[in-house]
Design goal:
- This protein has one domain: Nucleoside phosphorylase domain (Rossmann fold).
- It is globular.
- A five-stranded mixed barrel has the order 5-9-8-6-10, surrounded by four helices.
- The chain has six helices and ten strands.
- The protein is about 35% helix and about 30% strand.
- Helix 1 packs parallel to helix 6 and helix 3 crosses helix 6.
- A hairpin with a 2-residue loop joins strand 3 and strand 4.
- With about 230 residues, the protein is an alpha/beta fold.
- The chain binds S-adenosyl-L-homocysteine.
């Protein structure tokens, strides 16, 4: 197994890079890939940058150039459900591109020629990731499993969120990369899992909440959860 770990934000990756044994860095396509061992697991960590295209090219490069066999994404997201609170974690069951619409040629959200609007995750890997998350959070916050929506939009407007929720009632969280990684992994046949810590409520306060959260909590979460996850693999 060779694990690709994608983070969207530098704050989330920093701790992992420090924990890596015999790391070596390689620059490719404006990304810095760091390969080494994380808690005995052969790993490659990289920052995707923000948005679906950035995430897609990063995931594809991890597979094609760095030979990873599995991919995990850690990041933050806005809540899209009243039951999902800031500080909770959502581990995806499936992911949809909420800004994808080729109707009337294809149903809204369906990715042409895949027949899918919701890309399913790898069940075993996602189960391990949610167990690792539960172990890390103890009783401080909740772990949710369900639909994550991705789009090239930072959602910061209640009306916008409500219209997405109307179209995708099961939606638990919104972010900007997960569904792109999901599509790449689906097409390349690579098992993957995606976890998002809720940083904001995707409303008018989202930008301020997001900034504070990332600086104070997100890094600690990503580190603790990936540590538990890697240990559970050996
Ligand atoms: N100003 C920030 C931009 C971050 S964009 C910066 O300079 O880094 C927000 C990131 O967090 C994206 O990677 C996205 O996946 C996630 N995210 C958190 N809250 C979100 C929300 N409300 N809507 C969309 N993405 C969100």
């Amino acid at each position: 197994m060779r694990l690709g770990i994608i983070s969207a934000l530098a704050e989330e990756q920093q701790g992992l890079l420090e924990a890596m044994e015999s790391p070596y860095k390689l620059i490719h396509g404006k990304r810095e890939y760091t390969a080494g061992k994380l808690w005995k697991i052969d790993s490659v960590a990289v920052l995707s940058r923000i948005g679906k295209v950035a995430a897609a090219v990063t995931a594809a490069t991890l597979v094609e150039k760095f030979d990873v066999t599995h991919i995990i994404f850690t990041g933050v997201a806005g809540s899209a459900d009243l039951g999902v609170r800031v500080g909770d974690v959502v581990v995806a069951d499936s992911l949809a591109q909420h800004d994808f619409d080729a109707s009337p040629l294809f149903p809204r959200f369906e990715i042409p020629l895949t027949g899918l609007s919701h890309m399913p995750v790898d069940r075993e890997l996602s189960l391990k990731l949610s167990l690792a998350t539960r172990e890390f959070l103890q009783n401080d916050a909740q772990v949710h499993r369900g639909l994550i929506g991705s789009g090239d939009q930072f959602i910061k407007d209640k009306a916008h969120l409500m219209s997405l929720k109307e179209a995708l009632p099961d939606l638990l969280a919104v972010e900007m990369e997960g569904a792109a990684v999901a599509q790449v992994c689906h097409e390349l046949g690579v098992p993957f899992a995606i976890m998002r810590t809720i940083s904001d409520n995707a409303n008018e306060e989202a930008a301020t909440d997001f900034m504070q959260f990332v600086q104070t909590v997100a890094s600690r979460y990503a580190f603790g959860i990936i540590q538990n996850f890697c240990k559970s693999l050996t």
